[in-house]
Design a protein that fits this description.
By secondary structure, the chain is an alpha+beta fold. It is built from 2 helices and 7 strands. 13% of the residues lie in helices and 30% in strands.
Length: 168
């Protein structure tokens, strides 16, 4: 095996997704509130699908970490902002189970009912998972962050609403 031999993540259209998680209706990072967008990294990282989701992207605006050997305190944990946007094929996501989770809140996402669940499951960082059924399949966003003074569920819901506008 040589470097570069691994297959790239499939294009959203190739798996039948009604939207591209890396593009979100031509907006990409623009689907996120301006406050949390990365100033230079304009393209998210495509995710290779697994047995659960068919296509996805990682939007990261986390601080980098710098380690200096022999210097106490170097390598301190950086501030984190990470959002995963995914599309799940029809029948692959159990929306009823998601809605039944303790703490789940029904939310309106551009006229479509969705569910948001706030937690601190990702290393104690404020986290929010938002899901919404689309005309075909399910959109899922998970955001965890401690970098900005924002509600992760508000950001996650804003992105999900943009997806609904794009995918219907």
């Amino acid at each position: 095996m040589r470097l570069g031999d691994l297959a790239a993540a499939p294009a959203a259209k190739d798996v039948g997704a009604p939207f591209d998680p890396c593009d979100i209706g031509g907006k990409g990072w623009g689907a996120f509130p301006a406050q949390v967008r990365h100033p230079q990294r304009t393209k998210p990282l495509p995710l290779r699908p697994n047995r659960d989701f068919a296509t996805g992207c990682d939007y990261s605006n986390s601080d980098s970490i710098s380690i200096t050997p022999g210097e106490p305190g170097s390598g301190a944990k950086p501030a984190v902002f990470s959002a995963i946007v995914q599309w799940w094929a029809p029948g692959a996501f159990d929306l009823a189970a998601e809605a039944a989770k303790p703490g789940g809140q029904r939310v309106d996402l551009a006229g479509r009912a969705g569910t948001s669940l706030a937690s601190t499951e990702r290393g104690g960082k404020p986290t929010c998972e938002t899901v919404v059924a689309l005309g075909s399949g399910t959109a899922r966003g998970e955001l965890w962050q401690d970098k900005f003074p924002v509600d992760p569920c508000a950001v996650s819901a804003a992105v999900a609403a943009e997806i609904v506008k794009t995918a219907g």
